[in-house]
Amino acid sequence: MKRYLGIIFVFLWAVVPLTAGEAPDPKTIRQRRVDVLLPQALAAHDVDAWLVVSREYSRDPIAADLGGGQVVARAAFIFARTANGLRKIAIVASYDTTPIEESGLYDRVIAYRGEGIKPHLKKVMEELDPKRIGVNISRDVPLGDGLTAGMRNYLEETLGAALAARLVSAQPVVVSFRGRRLPEEVALLREAAVYTDKIIREALTEKVITPGKSTENDVANYLRRRTEEFGATVPFLSVVVGPTRGHSDPSDRVIQPGDLVRIDFGITHHGYSTDVQRTAYVLRPGETAPPAEIQKMWDTCRAATDAAIAAMRPGVTGLHIDTVARKVLTDAGYQGYPHGGGHPIGFDVHDVGPMLGPDWPERYGSTVFFKLEEDQTFAVEPIVYAEYAPLGGEINIGLEEDVVVTADGADRLHSRQDALILLRSAEP
């Protein structure tokens, strides 16, 4: 009976369109992120207080995560570890208080008027007396580099020499807080990833692609329509046929027998973004399988992706994951891909966290040395590139899969692509 129920479930999944679930309350999720994930990040990285300052025209990019994305005048958001738990204090101009109070994130909101923020900020920080004060300065993480030079000078002037000497980079706090997901957020990403994978697989069928007639834009329009039906949006979309064009917009190039069709695509669903790649080969008349070299590229890419995912667990670096994947390619006789083997996903297609990449200091900086943490989410993509004369240049096999890091490994957020997708040409 279980076997038949399983068959029925698979059948229904295949024929019944997925629809977006009921939207969760973003305010509740944001509150839980601050109350659950932030204290863990502060403790893990030995930061006693995180001080985020922002203002109009030079707003700190992380301020939106803290309810302060629209402040006008100087504002300070303080999160401090104390013996009585996490203190959450906002100091804002009197006309900025309402949205801060309504965010529900703060146990104290201090309004200032003509006297300015300085006396209030100085008093609060002296009362908290934190030993290590994290501020948003970072060489390699843009989202953790929101403190401008002018505001840094103002902070030092406001706090005085003794407290200013305790300022440290909050980069690891930003990476951990922003990069980890609550269970309900993972569920949303999983729902989005399953749907992304589903409609890409639909697009790479004869239902959508008629070799000799269909174009890259035809495929892209199908993906956009199916995304709209789901109630989601498209943050990016690349459909590439033939020789490698990187992150290229879809064109009117007609898909022909013998082509590789690569889709690199994601959706944004309830504020969470996916990033999935799939590749298909268009069989020539009389072919029943792809050419040996293309099959080898696929097999190598599949093995490298599996190896990378198998190596993912809390405590390993992004560099380690990339090294594992890259070795599979080089052992098979291919050069390493000219980019990283994966990246964080979440609120953005390229989010904050460890870069699964090589030690290229001028490209990735220190981000490849960040350690993976439980509940971080990634797109894994160790792509195989090779010259292929029949298609007139360098081609690649695009395979990218979304995962969440668990306590002892990693879990795929959607089904695994087990084989290169094959499209059949109409017989003459």
Distance between the termini: 45 Å
The CATH superfamily name of the largest domain is Creatinase/methionine aminopeptidase superfamily
How many separate domains? 2
Rg, Å, rounded: 25 Å
H/E series: HHEEEHEHEHHEHHHEEEEHHEHEEEEEE
Q: Which tags fit this structure?
A:
disordered N terminus; 5-stranded mixed sheet; 428 residues; alpha+beta; Creatine Amidinohydrolase; 12 helices; 6-stranded mixed sheet
A few lines on this structure:
The protein has 428 residues and is of the alpha+beta class. The chain has twelve helices and 17 strands.
Structural description of this entry:
The protein is of the alpha+beta class and 428 residues long. The chain has 2 domains: 26-177, Creatinase/prolidase N-terminal domain (Creatine Amidinohydrolase, Chain A, domain 1, 3-Layer(aba) Sandwich); 180-423, Creatine Amidinohydrolase (Alpha-Beta Complex). The protein is 35% helix and 21% strand. Strands 4-3-2-1-5-6 form a 6-stranded mixed beta sheet, with helices on both faces. It starts with a helix and ends in a 5-residue tail after the last strand.
How is the topology of this model organized?
Layout: H1 2-15, H2 26-44, E1 49-54, E2 75-82, E3 85-93, H3 97-102, E4 108-112, H4 118-128, E5 133-135, H5 149-159, H6 161-164, E6 167-169, H7 171-179, H8 183-203, H9 216-230, E7 233-241, E8 260-269, E9 272-273, E10 276-282, H10 292-311, H11 318-331, E11 342-344, H12 361-364, E12 377-380, E13 384-388, E14 393-397, E15 401-405, E16 410-412, E17 421-423
Parallel strand pairs: 1-5, 3-4, 5-6, 10-17
Antiparallel strand pairs: 1-2, 2-3, 7-8, 8-9, 8-10, 11-12, 12-15, 13-14, 15-16
Helix pairs in contact: 2-7, 8-9, 10-11
